[in-house]
Automatic annotation (TrEMBL):
It is found in: Cell membrane. InterPro entries: Na/Ala_symport (IPR001463). It comes from Clostridium botulinum. This is Alanine:cation symporter family protein. It comes from the Bacteria. The chain crosses the membrane at residues 38-60, 86-109, 125-146, 152-171. It is a multi-pass membrane protein. It holds the Pfam family Na_Ala_symp. Belongs to the alanine or glycine:cation symporter (AGCS) (TC 2.A.25) family. Its main location: membrane. One of its GO terms (molecular function) is amino acid:sodium symporter activity.
């Protein structure tokens, strides 16, 4: 169970393997596509190894881990214990920006998909559905929201990993080209 939730929360946090961030990386203006691959790797590293590890250390070292409190409440308690009221406000503000930017980001990704798949038709329906799901999402039990997120994230990984395997030869060729033709000073 610990592995299941660890993988699910890690996937939710960094989206590695889901195929969600290529939308954002595809619009970047770079000299070589490998540059954006490296940026994507750095993003996962910062999110997973720095932010999440730091959060885990705060939880483990502040003495708030009681086996009853979980999730954001546990994190907020830990930061409050370590930093006083500033910790509580910091987590509240960080959570707000995380939630807001997540809604904006996923909206952008979804709109790009609707434009591509349906040649721009159906955008108003998509926008309406997004607004409805945002409102409905605030009324659902948190456990149900997490289960839905975990399920749909897992479903996104399957076709993306298949595509990653199918495209691995192109990735290797691109990396070889990048290593042969670009130097750090050229970037």
């Amino acid at each position: 169970q610990a592995i299941r939730y660890g993988v699910a929360r890690g996937l939710f946090s960094n989206e590695a393997g889901m195929g969600s961030t290529p939308h954002a990386h595809a619009v970047a203006k770079v000299k070589h596509p490998v540059e954006q691959g490296l940026v994507a790797i750095v993003g996962v590293f910062i999110d997973t190894f720095i932010v999440l590890t730091f959060t885990a250390f705060v939880i483990l070292t502040t003495g708030v881990l009681d086996g009853k409190t979980t999730g954001i409440e546990l994190t907020q308690n830990a930061f409050t214990q370590g930093l006083g009221n500033f910790g509580a406000y910091f987590i509240a503000v960080a959570l707000f920006f995380f939630a807001f930017s997540t809604i904006i980001g996923w909206y952008f990704f979804g709109e790009a998909n609707v434009k591509y798949l349906f040649k721009g038709k159906g955008l108003n329906i998509y926008r309406l559905l997004v607004a409805i799901f945002i409102v409905v999402g605030t009324t659902l039990k948190v456990d149900l929201v997490w289960e839905l997120a975990d399920t749909f994230n897992g479903l996104m990984v399957i076709p993306n990993v298949i595509a990653l395997i199918a495209l691995s030869k192109i990735v290797k060729e691109s990396l070889k080209d990048y290593n042969e033709n670009f130097k750090v000073k050229d970037i």
